[in-house]
Each structure stands twice: as structure tokens, then as C-alpha cells.
Design brief:
α8 packs parallel to α10. The N and C termini lie far apart (50 Å). It contains eleven helices and eleven strands. α8 links the parallel β6 and β7. By secondary structure, it is α/β, with parallel strands linked by helices. It binds iron/sulfur cluster (SF4).
């Protein structure tokens, strides 16, 4: 199979390296092949806000408004190397992009991390790993992958990711990683569209795919997403559904001696038996662009999860 992403490019966002919060390097302008409904880039693509015609693209290139790809690639790799060699840089340096695998210099980047004896953990949509030859090249380097799988249903995966055939490509990618014995974990952003199949998804990942590490992240609304999709709050899955699914997930995990991590679900919103099971680890992310500020409850003061808890979004239902 050949490259799987759309050929268009985002002219407003040329490929370049940006550093975020010191140890987080982001290569901007590298497009992924998906249009996920919960992602700002995905929604922009769905609405045709960032894509230009092939004709305009080639006109831009002939005007040489951007440096040649190899030149950009070399500059990025040199900058990353300088960054990694800086003695003040932490071991946890992460390199990200909408999909780092679509960066043309990604194999050289893997080689750089290997040469400097640094570990690269990569969260990626992973469609390019459906290409067996490319996956084989990746297997030469010490990289651990986290791929996103929203559902066991191809129909739901394709709808959430905004691309027909996305589910089939993901299955091929996962199969390649497993055959090549490349470390793999699965994550999933949970919205109203996939919440009902969450327990089935966890069963599939643990039992059928034999992947042990799985993270379920509650959809989090950001102002930038709300700006392009005013209806985005519809994506929130009700906490009552989370609770229902987590009860089933905790029971499954108990049976198989496994566990899952859940991000940004206030533990007070799920059945006490889920907490007691010890099979669901609650974790919380830091959000700086939320238009729905979190709401502390009276009982938050005595809660063991406070202040790490994300608390409840201000527009959530009343607590149980
Ligand atoms: S800190 Fe507040 S919102 Fe979070 S789990 Fe505790 S009581 Fe619930």
C-alpha cells in the first residue's frame, strides 16, 4: 500500500519546528490523513477551511514561498539534535505533530533518537504503518507507538475520524506492529458517538488484540475548536454512560487481571464499585483553553482527588 494521506497542504501553516513548554517539540504543518471530529485540525479540514486546490498548491511551490522540503527537514533535524544535546533538556523530550509519521524526515528523526540513546514514544494516528515496508523501517529503531482506535465498529471509527476506510487501515497498522513486535498501546477519545461501545472496545483491545495498555480520554472542549464548530459541546458523553461502561470494564479487567487508564472523568461521577475495583486508573490532563471552566463542588474539599481532579465542566449535568 502506498502513502495514505491527502495530497493537499495547509498553506497557512508551513512546516517548521516549534518548542512548547521547554521539553515538548512540535513540528507544525505536517498534515495527518484524518478529519477527527474532536480535533481542531480535523474540523477545519471537514469544513474545508485549510485545504487549497492542487492548482494553487503548485502555484505556491513554483513561487518558492517555502524552502525546499530537504532544507526544512535538515534544519528541523539539526534543531532537534541541538535541543537533545542541551544539558538542561529533560529526558522526557517529546516530538509531536498532527501525525509525525507524515514528516518526511521521520526515519532520520528515529535514527537521531537512537544515536543519542534517547527513547521516543510516539502518539500517532498511525495510518502510514499500514504500509508494511514503512513499518519494517520503523522496526529498526527503539520507538514505542500509541495508536488511536475509537471503536470496534468500522462504521463508527470511520465516522469519528472522517475518513472512509480509516478503521481498515488502522487494523492493518496494528497487525504490522504486532507481527514486527514493535511496542504498542491504544488510546481513544471518548465522545457521545463511541461511548456505548467502550466496554466492547476494551474487551477487543485486551482480548483479541492482546494489547495490554489502553487509555480512554474524555472529550475535552477547547475554545479553538468551539470557534470553528459552535456545536462541539454535542460531543460530550454523559457521565452516566461513562459510569455504566466503566462498571462493565472494571468487571472485564478483574477477570483478565488487566487495567485501563481514564483521563478527565471526575471519579465522583462513576459507581463506587469502579473505584473499589482498582482496575480503572483515573488521571487528569491540564487544559489551558477550555471555554467551560471546571466547577468545584462543596464535597471537592474533602475529596482525595482534589486538586488533581479536572472537576466538572461548568456545563455538565448536576452531580449524582
Ligand atoms: S474533586 Fe470534586 S469533582 Fe473531582 S472527584 Fe472529587 S468531588 Fe468529584
Amino acid at each position: 500500500m502506498d502513502r495514505v494521506y491527502d495530497p493537499a497542504m495547509d498553506v497557512g501553516n508551513p512546516i517548521r519546528l516549534v518548542a512548547i513548554e521547554g521539553s515538548w517539540l512540535r513540528i507544525s504543518g505536517v498534515q495527518c490523513g484524518l478529519r477527527c471530529e474532536y480535533c481542531i485540525t480535523g474540523v477545519r479540514k471537514r469544513k474545508g477551511l485549510t485545504w487549497v486546490s492542487d492548482k494553487l498548491q503548485s502555484a505556491m511551490q513554483s513561487l518558492r514561498l517555502a524552502p525546499a522540503a530537504e532544507e526544512v527537514e535538515r534544519e528541523i533535524l539539526e534543531s532537534v539534535e541541538r535541543f537533545l544535546l542541551d544539558p538542561t533538556t529533560t529526558e522526557e523530550t517529546e516530538v509531536t505533530a498532527d501525525d509525525l509519521l507524515e514528516f518526511t524526515g521521520v526515519l532520520q528523526l528515529f535514527a537521531l533518537f537512537a544515536r543519542l540513546d534517547r527513547t521516543l514514544h510516539l502518539v500517532t494516528p498511525g495510518l502510514r504503518l499500514a504500509n508494511r515496508d514503512f513499518a519494517k523501517e520503523c522496526a529498526k529503531y527503539p520507538v514505542a507507538f500509541t495508536l488511536t482506535l475509537p471503536s470496534v465498529s468500522a462504521e463508527i471509527t470511520d465516522a469519528i475520524m472522517g475518513r472512509d476506510g480509516a478503521h481498515a487501515l488502522l487494523m492493518e497498522a496494528i497487525g504490522n506492529l504486532q507481527e514486527l513486535e514493535i511496542p504498542l498501546s491504544i488510546n481513544c477519545t471518548v465522545t457521545r458517538q463511541n461511548i456505548d461501545g467502550l466496554a466492547e472496545l476494551v474487551r477487543f483491545v485486551h482480548q483479541d488484540l492482546c494489547v495490554e495498555r489502553m487509555t480512554l480520554a474524555c472529550f475535552c472542549l477547547e475554545q479553538v475548536l468551539l470557534n470553528v464548530d459552535p456545536e462541539a459541546p454535542r460531543l460530550f458523553a454523559p457521565y452516566a454512560k461513562w459510569s455504566e461502561q466503566l462498571v462493565a470494564i472494571a468487571a472485564q479487567c478483574e477477570e483478565r487481571s488487566t487495567a485501563v487508564s481514564v483521563i478527565d472523568v471526575p471519579p465522583c461521577q462513576v459507581e463506587a464499585s469502579v473505584l473499589a475495583s482498582g482496575r480503572v486508573n483515573f488521571d487528569f490532563a491540564v487544559h489551558t483553553d477550555s471555554p467551560t471552566p471546571s466547577r468545584r463542588l462543596e464535597e471537592c474539599d474533602g475529596c482525595p482527588f482534589d486538586p488533581r481532579c479536572c472537576h466538572l465542566p461548568a456545563n455538565s449535568r448536576e452531580p449524582r
